[in-house]
Amino acid sequence: MRAFIDGIPKAELHLHLEGSLEPELLFAIAQRNNLTLPYASVDDVRHAYQFSRLQDFLDIYYQGMSVLLYEQDFYDLTWAYLERVARDNVIHVEVFFDPQGHTDRGVPFKVVIDGIHRALEEGQKKLGISYRLIMCFLRHLSEESAFETLEAAMPYRDRLCGIGLDSSELGHPPSRFERVFAKARAAGLKAVAHAGEEGPPDYVWQALELLKVDRIDHGNRAMEDPALVNRLVQDGMALTVCPLSNLKLKVIETMQAHPLRRMLDAGIIATINSDDPAYFGGYMSANLIAVQTALNLNKDAVITLAHNGFRGSFLSETEKAAALARIDAFVVDAGTGD
Ligand code: ADE
Ligand code: ZN
Predict the structure, then answer these.
(1) What is the pLDDT of residues 141-199, one digit of tens each?
(2) How far apart are CA 220 and CA 287, in angstroms?
(3) 156 CA → ligand 1 middle, Å
(4) C-alpha of residue 166 to centroid of ligand 1, in Å
(5) Tens-place pLDDT, residues 243-269
(6) 12, 16, 17, 169, best to mutate for ligand 1 pocket (most atoms within 8 Å of CB)
(7) Given ligand 1 and candidates 13, 53, 55, 57, which is best to mutate, with the most ligand atoms within 8 Å of its CB?
(8) Of the listed 71, 94, 169, 197, which one is catalytic?
(9) Which residue is closest in CA terms to ligand 1's atom 10?
(10) 3-class SS at 77?
(11) CA 60 to chain centre
């Protein structure tokens, strides 16, 4: 099963590039930028990655990303992620970045997007990984700041597929961003939002009804509301589920308690993703293996999850069909063994 999970062609739809900054690269970039970190060693950094809720993680995540200053830093970050997931047979990625986490420190938007975009283009050419780029608004900041960020992004509109909403969920409902999402959608951008990770089912409703999202990030707590589950199924709305993240941030108590199987049984298009793999201890295959083992998922369920990654993506229908055919060819090749 492990080899099957490693080998099956995969899409990743919920990945914060800044959350893929491994401690080794964090140190290397800090050193070349003449910055001092509050950690003595890579081991020391990994030791600090103990969280009891989302905010504990976010504090360390914003501190980590503050070493990123130059175009090359953003390139190296993105390239390291792509090289890593190529080994997991990820063939398509839809990645997030948090521009305000950089522009608020004085790093120009252009520097951030130029570095990321150059690596994504190179990943497409050299690794065969197709991509979409999604810019997230930090929900703990103001609506005004989100509007400014959208404005700053407009010269790069053709490099962006969509917008998202992330950071501290509790106390920052989607409703606060209704207008900026409407403006972004009017510019033809897709919309996604983190909802129902720590926040209540009502935040998922708001993401659907007010932000008019095309996809929900996390969505775990939607399972508390049967009417919401029906709505997600009826809309064919994909959820980007992140098992190891959920465990590390104590959204679930144990992996055995993960709602993924209930999501699939209800008919929701649940997808598996890594969120912030440098902080949560695993990339795509590790997330699939963790949840498959804990929930005792069979091969058909794993195939469904691989399919869902593409069904829930922003690829064209032709591209989706080609990816699904690649999965099916892999399954045939792999035969009937475990
Ligand atoms: N930013 C990075 N990872 C996040 C997560 N899991 N939830 C909210 N904001 C985030
Ligand atoms: Zn996330």
Answers:
(1) 999 999 999 999 999 999 999 999 999 999 999 999 999 999 999 999 999 999 999 99
(2) 16
(3) 24
(4) 6
(5) 999 999 999 999 999 999 999 999 999
(6) 16
(7) 57
(8) 197
(9) 167
(10) helix
(11) 18
Q: Identify whether 144 is a catalytic site residue.
A: no
Domains for the chain: give ranges and CATH numbers.
2-334 (3.20.20.140)
CA-nearest of 220, 314, 303, 316 to 268 is: 220
Are 240 and 271 in contact by the 8 Å Cβ rule? The answer is yes
Measure the CA–CA gap between 307 and 325, rounded to whole angstroms: 10
Q: Which of 230, 226, 223 is nearest to 195 (CA)?
A: 223
Question: Could you tell me if the CB of 19 is within 6 A of ligand 1?
Answer: yes
The encoded tokens of residue 83 equal 């090289």
**Dihedrals φ, ψ of 45, to 5°?**
-65, -50
Alpha helices in 123-250, H assignment, sequence order: 143-153, 178-186, 201-209, 226-235, 243-248
